[in-house]
Amino acid sequence: MLCRVADSLFWMSRYLERAENQARFIDVTSSIALGYRGSEQALWSSLLHAGGDAEAFLQRYAAPTRENIINYLLFDRRNLNSVVSCLTAARENARSVRETLTAPLWEAVNRFYLRVRTDAAQQPRILKQPHQFLERIKRSAHQVLGVREATWSHEDAWHFSSLGYQLERADKTSRILDVRYFLLLPMLHTGSEQLDVVQWAALLESTGALQMYRRTWGPIQPARVVDFLVLSPTFPRSLRFCIDAAEATLRAISGNTTADPRNEAEVLVSETSRRLASLRAEDIMATGLHPFIDQFQTTLNGIGAAVSGTYFQIPTPA
Amino acid sequence: MTQTAPNYDELLTPSGVPRHSALSECLAALSADVLAERQKLAEEELLEKGITFAVYGHDAGTEKIWPFDVVPRPIPAHEWQQIEAGLKQRIRALNLFLDDVYNEGRILRDAVIPEALIRTAKTYRPECRGFRPPGGVWTHVTGTDLVRHHDGTLYVLEDNLRCPSGVSYVLENREIMKRVLPEVFEGSVIAPIDDYPERLLEKLLSTAPADAEHPTAVVLTPGIYNSAYFEHSFLAQQMGIELVTGPDLFVDRDDTVWMKTTRGPRKVDVIYRRIDDDFLDPEVFRPDSMLGVPGLMRAFRAGRVTLANAPGTGVADDKAVYQYVPDIIRYYLSEEPILSNVPTYLCSDPQQCAYVLENLASLVVKPTNESGGYGILMGPVASQDERERCAESIRRDPRNYIAQPMLTLSTVPTVINGRLAPRHVDLRPFILFGEQTFVLPGGLTRVALREGSMIVNSSQGGGSKDTWVLQQN
């Protein structure tokens, strides 16, 4: 597989996954903002923090109102992480490696992009009532995943695409957990108040985890929510699941069947995987979720850089 | 513009009798609404499949949907046999010519073609002197432009021996056609075209350097902003080979070409390059080229890699050399040309130049080394001012211009605002040259969508049609 093509497949997948997460975050936030008893602005602002976009946002918008934030996250082309920007980038990447995608997969990505572009013409209406639009984004993203699964041989191209999805998911789950936990934390410590089940449920729902959590744990308890999103070995958006999957993907790419990692990226994922397997949610909460996620983010960046150095950026021999 | 002579219509005789009754009956049975609806369906499908081309001069990355018209252009079997034989003859002669001008130069010594004409051609590549490509194949892929004048004769308008494009649209047009207007296929037996990618791959692999045991072929593209990017990507996908850009390749000290893969460098033996000669290798041609591969010509000349088409083929489709193609055919093959050439006046010849300058109002003037319909003056429809500026350019650089009488292109009914109206068309068949020369039945029919217009280039408002070579039942 050409290095350039592997790079584009990786990023195509990251952008598609990013668009879907963005849509889900906004959808869940819209839903819990109705009748919210805390600061609605803090709730919406948390989405900016989750994307690491708060500063850039404030440079461009007067106030962090709901509509401004939704606009920024969905339609603003200056925001490289907006849904429109993500899909433009995903489609551009797909177009540059179109010959390696199956025809149905390319068409699914192209349709996804065209659909959002057409819908974006109704921006004012969507800003007021984003739900149907967000639902279509999620559905289109799932369609791409389905076509990808059903039509593409599980070879290098597929693996590099998978790796993009896995790392992006790990990143997004960790970020949303970080910012929402921060909002819920004060209530957790006052003790007197009843547990805000609605808010904890919403945190799970932000990653589409609520139903699966219920089947595993039943009643909502903060430590179990953290356990589920960070340490579940079976839920496809938990940190641990994504890292384990990335490890398997990296080994499939290098053809490594031995116990030892073969390159820097494999070293990093295997260390992280072992660490996550040995942790308990209580330990993480006792030392603080935020520093834990901070460190996790640093590791993710390191994995991304190592993958790029090993597979994407090959200098021309002199 | 008004026509003095009646148009030749590809579907109807002048007295209105259908030339192909089955097709005409099917079309007649479709109401205007149905045609318009199918036309819309076709456009939606093209959009979803991302079948586009980029137009230069707009924002980078501006893609336009490939304009497609649902009424096919038929070619009867007996006529196609002539065309096919004529194209094979022409391409064979032109490849012998290329081999000769870059080696012995017999045709120049025998004064069949003035040596000065070759030496002054901008597309003549001294770098190719003394080179013989594997199998004597210089032009692996040719896309010859044919037009039918109102006298019913088909003429070769241009040979396009460098990087002709359009074949992907031929294949996609047929696919779209089958999906949106299946009923018109009834009662007609049409030559299939689906095997083109297979044939192209065979051709590329068969011209690999002799020492390549399991040769690897790639398609080299300038990238996603090139107007024909869709085609590059389509062909790579259909052949199951890598689509590479210049920076994906490098040439080592032993003149071997490699591509950078995630498993390390992989040797490349054949490059179907869709980059012009000028940009191919910054070491030899334009040093500012970011699209090419440094050292590629070295590897090519050392016989370590096959370039399809070979560099330097442009000298044979120089519009001034065009006039000599009938002589070229006679010289190398001792045969009479099967296909007609358009009478051509060379401005490099003082007498012919004087004639051209006196008759600008009735002639078409073309620069000898341009494609895509750029720089052409259509004398009969040009303004006085345009003609004067053209005359000035001719006087300044006569070698750079030729002139031809204005041909009236034949027409095919086309869906215009929901109804059928005649529009002018040309035809670009594709030829894969080699020991076994293959001509794709039909080719790309381009149509000028503006009433009366003869400009069929997609960059200038042209559309396209499916082309049917009708077989006998």
Question: What does this entry show, briefly?
Answer:
The complex is a heterodimer of chains A (318) and B (473). Chain A contains 16 helices and no strands. By secondary structure, chain A is mainly α.
Q: Can you walk through the features of this model?
A:
The complex is a heterodimer of chains A (318) and B (473). Chain A is mostly helical and 318 residues long. Helices cover 76% and strands 0% of the residues of chain A. Chain A has two domains: 1-152, no CATH class; 154-313, no CATH class. Chain A has helices at 3-33, 40-51, 54-60, 66-74, 83-96, 103-119, 123-128, 131-151, 156-190, 197-206, 210-217, 222-231, 239-254, 264-278, 281-287, 289-312. The radius of gyration of chain A is 20 Å and the shape is globular. Chain B has two domains: 21-342 and 407-470, no CATH class; 346-406, Dna Ligase, domain 1. Chain B has helices spanning 21-29, 32-48, 77-101, 106-109, 115-119, 167-180, 196-206, 229-239, 277-280, 296-301, 325-333, 350-358, 384-396, and strands at 52-54, 63-65, 68-76, 141-143, 145-148, 154-158, 217-220, 242-244, 249-251, 257-261, 264-268, 270-273, 306-308, 340-341, 345-346, 363-367, 377-378, 401-405, 411-416, 419-428, 430-432, 438-439, 444-448, 462-470. In chain B, the strands form seven sheets. Chain B has a five-stranded mixed sheet with strand order 3-24-23-20-19. A four-stranded parallel sheet of chain B has the order 8-7-12-13.
